[in-house]
Batch of 2 targets.
Target 1
Amino acid sequence: MKHSSYLAAFVLCSTALTQPAYAQSQSITVGWYGGNWGDAFRACVAEPFTKATGISVSAEIGTSTVTLSKLQQQKGSPTIDVAWMDGGISELALAADVVDNLDAGAISNLSNALPESVYKSGSTTYAVSTGYYSLGLTYNTKEVKEAPTSWNDLWKKEFEDTVTIPSPSNSAGVPFIMFLSQIWSVPEGDLSETFKKIKDLKAALFFDSSGAATNAFQSGEAVIGAHFNVGAWDMADKGLPIGFVVPKEGAWATDARLHLVKGTSKKEAAQKFINQALTPESSACLAEKLYLGPSVKGVQVKADVARKLPWGEKGSVKDLKLFDWVNINEQRSKIVDTWNREIARK
Amino acid sequence: MSTTARRVSLLVGLPSLFFLAFFLAPMTVVALASLTDASGNLTFVNYARILLDQYHWDVLWVTFRIGAITTIACVLIGYPLAWYLVRIVDWRPWRRVCVILLIVPLFTSNIVRSFGWMVLLGRNGLVNDSLQTLGLIERPIRFIGIELGIVIGLVYILLPFIVLAVGNSVADVDPSLEQASADLGARPATTFWTVTFPLCLPGLMAGAVMVFMLAVSAYVTPALLSGGRITVFSMLIFQQYSSVFDFNYGGALSITMLVLTLVLVATAGRVGATKGA
Amino acid sequence: MTAPLLNITKLSKHFGRQAALSDVNLEVEQGEFIALLGPSGCGKTTLLRCIAGFLKPDSGSIRITGEDVTRLPPYLRPLNTVFQNYALFPHMSVEDNVAYGPRRRGATKKDALSQAADALELVGLSGFAGRFPRQLSGGQQQRVALARAIVNRPKLLLLDEPLSALDLKLRKRVQIELKHLQEKLGIAFVFVTHDQEEALTMADRVVVMSGGRIEQVGRGEDIYRAPATRFVADFIGEANLLPCSILPDGSLMTSVGALSVRPKLRPKGDNLVAVLRPEQVSLLPDGAMEGLSTVPAVVEDVIHVGSHVMVNARVGDTVITSRVSGQLPAQVVKGARLHVGFRPDDLHLIGD
């Protein structure tokens, strides 16, 4: 009895002591990716946000899948308030019921976003895109004199043993197979034709991480192949002879999306953060730093940045082949399995 | 008395607790997942899917073959190297340098080292360049995407383990035993095979088991050096956890791998034990 | 004239700058039991290892029955060794350990095992053939090591402090067994020990070493009675060492006074030492006694050592120790004034 009253007094005291301090230096936790992605998110979104609101941002670094599993574990009392997750994982997060509705009333800039970049399930807005990136044709400009124009160029004899495309362990792997099936008009129910063609591809390697792809192009192991515009232009900016084109069939693309974590105790601050991310300034900043295609209307970027955006020099978001991730996720297990048996086996 | 008892229980208890929390608990989670379906009902379907499918046996065969070749290569290179360090180098600073050279790579991440091998073994890599300059080959040899490349990468990463294990056991062999053997009329080679080698065998076996376990469970090195063209079992597990999100099937893959590896190691241990007595 | 079994001439060995052996000469005859005796670091083990072939001497030669083996590796030398720690092969059974030698000399497995069985019977370990060394006691291991070393019937057996790990009682018993076995087999033993009692009990001849040199070689009793050097006198048994010189008239001037003794032996040098064993010193509470040289002394310590009593008596600056076996006279107590006496003939003189 006595103990519990002491305890109560202690709790009261400490709450009283910490409360004002807490209000003065409020902070939120945002889940985002590592490396130059995280750096860009901090510079383009978190810093202006802190400047405007006085709320500091601490980062919880992890890939989309890791962030999702954290959210699943912390369900009910999350320590993460806002989370970036890629397309595909975003849908899984919705299914796992760890993301909250984005209220257009509280996030006024939601109306700035392109209609296709606001993701809804019924009446719930579960995610908003902060920028697109694509998987286009990347090539070594020294060894490939004439820029390729079609995905089918990868099968040319001159590129034998120097081609790279993603393996299904990469987040782009499964959708890329579906994308190829689409441009070859292979029916979705039976992808054996697609696998037959991939089996004919004389590949140097199938990359499972974006880093492995970059490494392969850097070392000359790969001369041509599929790579993300973000990674390809990053190499080019470092002075490597790398070119990136969106072929005539288009390029498969996905996006990095922001989510409001369900059950956060700092909902208001979290909404403000998302609101900041959807400003044209933040969007333009991400475009310049990562070559993410802006998801916000009317963003202007420099010409040199514009040509490096995921849709290529003259394109727009309309040229991107954005797939329905729910559909992809349904096919995933089967495609991975078939790939393992058909391709990743001598 | 009671403080001693408390101290002992603390000494035993803490590691046990650690073991329980960080090894047994996750293991149990995986094992339970492997025995349930997506809606949580008890089932053996995940295991049936693995064990009744020739594909999985093929991948296991590739995995264990790579593990075995890596282990043999590590033994063949590691034993003489350990011997050299312990028995032949008598200038201490040089021995220290050698040991440091051997251990330092352990402080670098596997990813970095495997990328390093990709650069070395690549089409335009140092190995192919040198071979071409020397006129030994005309076209670059493909190392990445074949088992040899994976084995090279694994041997490089796992060699220190066997050298340290064997080095300790070579150093532990009482020199008077070898002198006794010579005294009884055995030539150096006979002494090596009848006395020294059998006495190093436990250390060699321990090192080999360690290398084998690490080789069959390795993910990063095979993933990078296979170029996505060879599948080892750990890659199947990783796929399920990282991209397909089927934790039940993934759990069953993990447990299958664990059990088969332990069975293999136990068998090898028993064979080694009867020989070494 | 046949060559001796072992002939060592001018053997020297350095470890760095440290001389471990200098100019060692030694002959061992067939069937002889030789003890190499000395304090640790005296070079006895180095000498043994040179004979066995585990160490290469810097200079000098080692011959076995006339054949120069100085440069031969151990496995070509016709001798065997019992190691200090026994050096039994831990991964082999007792019989495999013993059969190892015959096997290396080309015996079939069957023959080797039957020879091993004979050797094990010789050392009384017949029932232990199938055991492993770790399952045996220290004494049993020692006997396996012995069986393994004699199974080839070498002409020469080297033993490197083989009994040092055994407890006192067991050691005494094994000493006798070993001596009997050596006599029975007729094998020459070169036996390293730092235990003088062991050396004196077992060996036909004792080689006393110090600082890499041989100080004296001889039968145990000769070494005890007539030590050749001050080191030997001090190291073997207990001794009263009295600095002395020979006066022009031929009599002896010692640290306890002038003695009207004319020593038979007259070593060279001016700084002589007279050796007097404690048991040669009598305590004379009642003064002089016929035939003894006596000097007055004061009792300093009376030390009871079980079977006998050691009495230290001071004569001027010198302390003389006397060993009294039997009844100690009642007058001999600490501080008592009495005389100590000895027979002049017992004085043994050592030169520089």
Target 2
Amino acid sequence: MNKTAKLVLEDGTILKGKSFGYAGSSAGEVVFNTAMTGYPESLTDPSYKGQILVATYPLIGNYGIPKKKTEDKLLTDFESDKIQISGLVISDYSYEYSHWNANESLDNWLKTNKIPGIYAIDTRALTKILREKGTMLGKIIVNEQDTDFYDPNKDNLVAQVSTKEIITYGTGKNKIMLVDCGVKNNIIRELTARNSTVIRVPWDYDFTKEEYDGLFITNGPGDPVKCEATINNLSKVIEKDTPIFGICLGNQLMALASGAKSYKLKYGHRSHNQPVLLCNTNKAYISSQNHGFAIDNDTLSEDWQPLFVNLNDDTNEGMKHKTKPFFSTQFHPEATGGPTDTMFLFDDFIEMVEKNKK
Amino acid sequence: MKNSTYKSTLKNLPKKVLILGSGALKIGEAGEFDYSGSQALKALKEEGIKTVLINPNIATVQTSEDIADKVYFLPVTPHFVEEVIKKEKPEGILLAFGGQTALNCGVELYQTGIFDKYKIEVLGTPVQTIMDTEDREVFANILREIDVKTPQSIAVTNIEDARKAAGKLGYPLIIRAAFTLGGQGSGFCNNDDELEKTAANALSFSNQIIVEESIKGWKEVEYEVVRDKYDNCITVCNMENFDPLGIHTGESIVIAPSQTLTNSEYHKLRALAIKIIRRLGVVGECNVQYALDPYSEDYRVIEVNARLSRSSALASKATGYPLAFVAAKLGLGYGLHQIKNSVTKTTPAFFEPALDYVVCKIPRWDLNKFNGVSKEIGSSMKSVGEVMAIGKNFEEAIQKGLRMIGQGMHGFVGNRDLDFADVEKELTNPTDMRIFSIANAFNEGYTVEQIYELTKIDRWFLEKLKNIFDIHTKLISFNKIENLHTELLKEAKIRGFSDFQIARFVLKSDENDISESLLKVRKYRKSKNILPFVKQIDTLAAEYPAQTNYLYLTYSGTEHDVEFANDGKSVVVLGSGAYRIGSSVEFDWCTVNALNTVNKSGYRSIVINYNPETVSTDYDVCDLLYFDELTLERVLDIIELENPKGVIVSVGGQIPNNLSVRLHTQGIKILGTSPENIDGAENRQKFSAMLDRLNIDQPRWKELTSIEDINVFVEEVGFPVLVRPSYVLSGAAMNVVSNKSELEHFLLMAAKVSKQYPVVVSEFIENAKEIEIDAVSDKGKMITYALSEHIEFAGVHSGDATMVFPPQKLYFETIRRIKKIGKQIAQALQISGPFNMQFLAKDNDIKVIECNVRASRSMPFVSKVLKTNLIELATKVMLEVDYEIPQKSIFDLDHIGIKASQFSFSRLAKADPVLGVDMSSTGEVGCIGDSYYDAILKAMLSVGYKIPKKGVLLSTGPVRSKMELINSSRMMQEKGLELYATPGTANFLRENNIEVKTAYWPDENKTPNCLELIKNKIVDFVVNIPKNLSEGELNNDYTIRRSAIDFNVPLITNARLASAFIYSFIKIDINELSIKSSDEY
């Protein structure tokens, strides 16, 4: 307990703090998230693969880590089977947790998963650096054991987090092909809860010749251009008429497959309070987000139109095909963590699927 | 508004809108509505809409010039609102900004068709929605329709059915007797045996009992939800109560955001809140309160408030999101996405604030002010104010907050004189000292688990408190500050320990050397570079750049968010802290006006304050807001960073005033009267000696330390005498005693309260008039003054007395002499700025009671009646900028102002509603009239009195009061009111040829009995004058007074006030009262 640790950024900034969790060093891309709840969910979100996560909310660990329970092959209360982040940076760690559903501390969980944490950091000051200079590489150094900087965006992170085998969930009537680029458990839960059987396939699996009622492209980490195989497959199926729904990276991959361009945001959107507007309406929703790349609305091809727009910075938050049952969102309707306001999009998708079957 | 470039984008806006205020501050309805109303008025003004405000609370900011276009100081009741509607012809009305008072009035107007009659649109939430949420049953049914759970209950009439009900609902249960007051016959039960006993007991009180599932001990969580007309919804904030269910949220420590809820719980309740607000159709803001099972995700909805509330004011300050402002815009028809976030100025109001800090609200009680009231806290609200503390961790926030409360506490630990005879009892049956009993329990070796079992406070909070206790334990193992590890010192500061606490623990300082020691700690700490950092509250956790001026300090940081100008062109104004009896919204008005004047005079205004109910802590009233402590330590921290031109300590009441000398000693420039001279007025010895030097008369007094000396002194001046400690604001522990045994009894208590200061005994002059002046002086020259008289004779605290301005019944000679004394004292103390003096006058003999070299409670009242802003003038004096000497005098006024007090006895079960030298009112109103009776009737109706229509119960006490009330009794009889009187009073009235029925004393077994007259509402007005000024009133009189309060029958306990009220309603009909806005006078 209380070993000193430091966070070193690629611009030379050094922030000193105290170590908790695993007492080893680690490197990655440093990103901040402004959510006030949901650390078990965030830490297991595969979209954070390769990233050191900074929590702007200062008190972390309060309610511990939930018991591990499995329902339909998925861990409840978590978004994947393990911690996906490379390191956690916070202000104040609650060594004592309290919750009926908890059975271990965050500290312990990080230790077991060999993920370092650092607390007593001015995370607001750090966030301002990231906001002004943009997301950058960094490393958590514990016990002066230095390590090299590591740029996760150079790797194919999706290949690292995607399933290696085909797994089937649920027994519903609608057969949903789910291309796993780093799927969050709750996407699968929401689909199976809506009378679906989900066939989860690897990111580069060639699903184009398979039979299914609907196609789902999941969220995932890193630069979308790395997912060439998925993009190629998608460009084939958008010639057909079977419904497609993409979330986050899924939104970007569908855009790339249809000819649009993606770009890296300065510091991304990672929070539970992002406002999005359904285009050409007065309907606005609070959404959960976690992405570093976005689609350039100006590059959308003729057949596509923006579906949602971010009210803070006018960036693309989703798109839809003008005539076919294809749509996608940059935000996370499945939430966990975060607000559940746009859960209805899963209903919309299943409705499309069912309509298309007739 | 600072944002002058604003352009309205909505068409078809109403041209004129009426807003209802909340009236006088009372328990449960306090300063938060000044904040919400002011914000709403600013929001409308920005749209170019003409605004009309009805609010008799003259001390509020919202009733100041330039906020509403027209202000009516009239009661917020259907009669007066309709009259104003007739006159002003507004097109729209806002009901959600004036608390329950405005809401109730609005519902009544709606039900009687007034809005339809005058074609007025209710803006925002529809009245039907409000009515749905107010009716428990309707509300529960609506929630049931949308599958939202409320506490389940079944009404039964026998034990057998109770058992069946228990089978359905499951244990634990609560049994309540129907139709009883104060929870008689109710109790908890965990099994069939207990159920039978409790049910049998309850059935002995009532033939119907309610069997209800018990959710006592569940977590209490609130959400503030906003909805626009497009059905877009956000939750601005959630909050978790530290105290579990069973303690009113107004009585609980509250943390924002929630700390012990998982993502799943947080968002489950959030989604439910949105579902509820959509079903109800609220347009604007609404508050949803939940009980959450600490062992599952099960929940119940306890309450929904379809209006701005205390919680929404807190949420607004906690997040920086201007809820009331936005709610007003939504009422006009904007969508949330169409309004800008006024903090970032770039992002929209449609978002949910992300906090990167934690806030802690702590209630402030003043239960010591009341005789007979229970100290236990529970399901009804008794607190009179609150504070909000901001920190990066819970320990920091709670320790700051406990200091802010301002009752001599220094944090969670390090408080003296806290002995709990029975800690376990204290933990199980919480009182206003609950949090300190936890510290005590740790000290006695209780574990977190044991305390949890007794309190059901979530272990997370208890662990954090334990952490504070453990750091304290580490600190006391050191004796020298130099030996303290820097790490530990830093950890202590991060966990909210003040230099005072550290001095007490490490240096073992006592009262004599603590002031020095804490500066020693400060110096050492600074030498080790352990310093606080200034952080912004920006609504979005630094995600986007924000131009926010909303700041706090923390030790969990490595850099400041802001740069400091250091140009000497700023002025720091110290605010008033928590509202309490004796210091509330009036000092906020003073603070806001000082800030405005600082701005207008070309300086940047900086305010330090921590009260979430205030306007002075709004984002748009100053250049910089430090939402932080008003302790020497924190004020020095801020001043050292800001290097202002100086500090204004004279507009925020006693808290800043008390800091003046210590700040001055540290070399801080105090603007206005020099701290030595402030002390010259505060220090009784110095002040008295000065009066003697000036040949100004004062009641004889002595500062004494032994009973013998006191007896000798009392021999000399005679009973009654006034006994009190020095250096207090509202006369805490002050009392009048009439005989030797009372004196001795009281001395034990008073001596215990103020060890530092000896007891002061003064001659008490009966039947003397009390007169006050509020004035401004420049370098010893009094440049303007306002003189007012009290209706009650001296002996009623000036904060409780009814004030008449300009005075109507004083000799010119008296006025002239008082003015002269005021000038002499201003000169002697070289006053520069505001001051207030109180005098006794009897037969033209004038005696000085006290002088406060600061703004007073009555400054806003006299400023608004006189239409000369005394605080603006005083601030100009303090800033040494040009001003014009006001030429208006009290003789030029064609109108009369009456300031009347609001009491909250109905909230304070068992408290004796009698007035004395200790202040007990929680608020006040000020009404203006063309005549004395016009003004007084409006004022009395504004504080809740009603004109009697049926009968009056008189019990008029000593002969002098009996005489006082002869004429008014006769007038009531002539008017056709049935008079009842207790035997002695009845005889007296009959002797004076007044027809009266005898009402027997409560303990007499005869009819008509006083109690039945009150309970059955045969009388609708009670006058009960205590027989003497001391405690220990006869039980019968107490029972009459308390019953009047409990059965909501208007009660007056002062003969002169009773007489004034009776004259006014006899002489003038309610329909003849003038309906004039303040600018028409």
